[in-house]
């Protein structure tokens, strides 16, 4: 089924641009991308789901593509509570009835946040990297040296030199991450450039830098969102049906995330897929099948 023309909807904070597939009467799915990716990560996933009867919404995250802030005065926050709230407000603005959430990287994090904080509002979840709610307190402690090396970009972004590097070399830096995180995936320049155009958003650098500085506990978040961050710090369980996924070739998740299973207290299944970090674009049928599995549990 063909993608519709790009659309947008206004929430209290953002004018969210989104791609859409399927009929208005279809069962709703929100597909959320990560950094440094964009909605094109779902170019093959979404038509599969639309052909199965879904109405698929793939929003451009804050700081990506045509999505813009309603007010110039709003903090350009990349914190997880803000991105989870964006999903809730998108679902409300589009009047989606208990949509299934599915995402990876930042999109998996935001989907898990929304599912944990507002379980009454969503029907199910597909999350790459399982329980992907960031334990900000734990981020103050070091990981293994091997993983710290993989996360070099996060350390770079703590400095003003890192901000300047991202601003001046965003395409080169982001392509390095694509290549490192998906070592078995062969993509061409055109594929990368389709997504890289989204990095020209005027808020991209501010959002990315704030995200990683807030994660490290080195930059304050939006005070209005602190009550949500306090709830997330208590590591709430996810109480809606969920399929979780790992990419067996993902250097960011060595050993996988199957051990997170106890944090899912409704129907839950974990799957390992031979792929890297960008699983929806590398193995779109596996990602779509996970969404269809959650759908089958709800009907």
How would you describe this protein?
By secondary structure, the chain is α/β, with parallel strands linked by helices. The protein has one domain (7-298): Alpha/Beta hydrolase fold, catalytic domain (Rossmann fold), CATH 3.40.50.1820. Helices cover 38% and strands 16% of the residues. The protein has eleven helices and nine strands. It has helices at residues 45-51, 80-93, 106-117, 145-150, 152-156, 160-181, 189-196, 204-215, 226-233, 279-282, 284-298, and strands at residues 7-10, 14-21, 27-32, 54-59, 68-69, 100-103, 124-128, 242-247, 268-273. Strands 1, 2, 3, 4, 5, 6, 7, 8 and 9 form a nine-stranded mixed beta sheet that branches.
What topology emerges from the helices and strands here?
Layout: E1 7-10, E2 14-21, E3 27-32, H1 45-51, E4 54-59, E5 68-69, H2 80-93, E6 100-103, H3 106-117, E7 124-128, H4 145-150, H5 152-156, H6 160-181, H7 189-196, H8 204-215, H9 226-233, E8 242-247, E9 268-273, H10 279-282, H11 284-298
Parallel strand pairs: 3-4, 3-6, 6-7, 7-8, 8-9
Antiparallel strand pairs: 1-2, 2-4, 2-5
Helix pairs in contact: 1-11, 2-3
